[in-house]
User: What shape does this take?
Amino acid sequence: MKSQSTPLMKQYAEIKVSHPDTLLLFRVGDFYETFDDDAVKCSKTLNIVLTRRSNGALSQTKLAGFPHHALDNYLPKLVRAGFRVAICDQLEDPKKTKSIVKRGITSIVTPGVSLNDQVLQATSNNFLAALHLDKEKAGLALLDISTGEFLATEGALSYIHQLIRRFYPSEVLYAKQKKNEFEAFIGKDYFSYAMEDWTFEYKTAYEKLTRHFQTRSLKGFGVEPLKCAITAAGAILIYLENTQHHKIYHLSSLSRIDESQHVWMDDFTLRSLEVLHSNHPNGLSLFDVLDRTLTPMGSRLLRRWLMLPLKEVSSIKERHDLLEALRVSSDLSFDISERLRSVCDMERLSSKVITEKISPRELICLGRSLESICSIKQTLSLSTRGQALKNFSQGFPDFKNLYEHIIKVLHMDPPHHLVKGNVIASGFCKELDELRRLIFSGKDHLQTIAQGEKERSGIQSLKISFNNVFGYYIEIRNIHKEKVPSHWIRKQTLSNAERYVTHELKDYERDILGAEEKILSLETDLFQQLTAKVGEHIEILQKGARSLAHLDVILSFSKSALEDQYVRPELNESQNIFIEQGRHPVIEKSLPIGTAYVPNDLSIDSELTQVLIITGPNMAGKSAFLRQSALIALMAQIGSYVPAKRMQMGLIDKIFSRVGASDHLSLGESTFMVEMNETAGILNNLSERSLIILDEIGRGTSTYDGVSIAWAVAEYLHEHFMRPKTLFATHYHELNKMTLSFPRIKNFNVSVKELEDKILFMHKIIPGASAHSFGIHVAKMAGIPSKVLHRAQELLKDLEASQSSGLQGESKEKTISKDLQMSFFQLENPLLEKLRSEIMDLDVNTLTPLQALTELDKMKKIFTKSFEK
Assistant: This one.
């Protein structure tokens, strides 16, 4: 800014210099204003007018702003656009200062730290992540400040990378000196922020965490030996300080994400199985099908369970026991469901209590939720449907006293904003009740004063009025001047009347005029006291919210079990999987009404049937069978019942999926390269309890390369000492011969009925190899022109004939009769000889794109001339 800047703009410049990487909202009177480049950004993002204001005698500056009361509408748009927004407020009353109003930053809102309901999504977390890279491993911390969830872990780079993709944080923090490593590791898919290097020092982080949690060590959180994780978690706390988030007492614990406790699924698997999101517009995911929760907390927890399935039998069985108890008691489930419908988002409201951002209406909603918990706790504890319900009820704290206190203090239907008044309940504060009586019964009180003066003076015609000059006054006509009592004080003489005031009237005036201001002040104080008292119970509030979310998810599972005929899986320590009449949980929900899903059995035994080779035509159901097998196993280990008639399964510790195309062409990777990367990830990370589903491995390259790769992969999985459970769908019928050499490989196919020249897909998986691929039949069903289909049939017959002739040393293509071939290079044509020579002499590895196009154009001209001749 120039030296001629106005005092206001000088003040703005000083604050802006301290926060150069933020978009600064500067409070000026009733508006938040932005200047210079910030104004341009704000104008474009919010679609508001860009104008100018004077900045001293010699200059003007760009300006864009909006009313301060519209902050909740505009702030989310700025944050969603990726801006870090610094809010600069007036720190003193402008009426009480003669100089420029003191201003300062009251909060910095970024995509990863927001409590604004317009920014947050109710059914998913809003995580801030901190990443600490350290050679071959990394530390990761995740914080949702809106719920108080604080997580940390460390591990190999591949593990941390997959966790980041799974949790998909809104913002990622890293050390400035690690910028190159960070971008190479995570790319540019996330909103990120580089912090000073000292914020990622282990000693600083450890001290920061122990001071915050008021502990001597971090052993109680299970992260003591995880130096990288501690470093990342400490950096998050420093970031909260830097962004003016000082009221963070709701961050009461640090939870470890323990790789050893959860089923591992990489990002490819989550996407290909459509666990959290569908890969198709308007499609359903497994989350969509299972989410019948009634609270936002429950929905978020279900998402977490799907991301991190359990692999401890006792923990899974606890969920199944609770589900069973709810499933067999429809009355109990209905009663709990009705209570849950009235429950608000306790996790986020508890956080708002601590940050003092909760509104009166939200606080009364929190109180009613506590009442619901009290009722649910009693219902569960008195249930006769098994010990599981009684045991679970003990996890709910007793909120009776806190609930009763909230209801006692707050009005039953308070406004959303404190300034609207009528927040505190009648009867709680005598002074407040008196002030309200004074306002609402003011006219009656004035009549009482007037009647008293009439009786004392004998002037029955006197009246009490009000103006802005004298306030309240008594007016009488001149003919009654002789009757005026001595305690009246004359204020004004009119032509035919006199005006007086009394001490009683002035006292009333003082009371009535200050009553509204006193009411607001008193209600504000009482509300803040209530908020502080509720905040003292933050840990049990969070515990109650977690228990309620847990119950909500299990109740959601029980609804699916009843309505969709799911059964309880039998989990054991074996290496086998047996599913009788399994169904795909998502596809069966997407079928037209009246269409039944065709169930299929699955039996995998690591000693007898370890690798299943599944052949059959496209559209017949191979991929659906593969996916449903993996999804059923996943559902069993999150604590859900499964879509089957019966299921027995040994615990799975990893699920790998190579199903469907996932091209990264924009990153320069071909379909085949992506397929090989994913396959390599599976082969290099498998375990003895892994479940692997592979679909069409090797199809992205030539036939013989593809068959060779597919064979080698299947052989590797069979011969590996871990013996992972594998379902392998393929079009390469050559793989059917593997059963002759590998005892634990078994052939299966999708049943098909042939009716003359038509086929009927039965969608049934049966033992044995498929006789044909039925590719031409599928092409016909897809609408390929009959001329093309006829030509394909001719070629197919010739190829099959050549294959059966037993010719060796020649490719199938060379055995096709000459009348069915299209010889590209007829060597008697000199122009084609020249074209061949041109191609053979090209070094494709050194060509630029422009040179390649030039050569291609030259060859096209030669080829065209050859046919003209």
Residues 662-668, 806-827 have pLDDT under 50 and may be disordered. The two ends are 78 Å apart (CA to CA). Residues 570-773 form a domain with the Rossmann fold fold (CATH 3.40.50.300). Residues 26 and 88 are 5 Å apart (CA to CA).
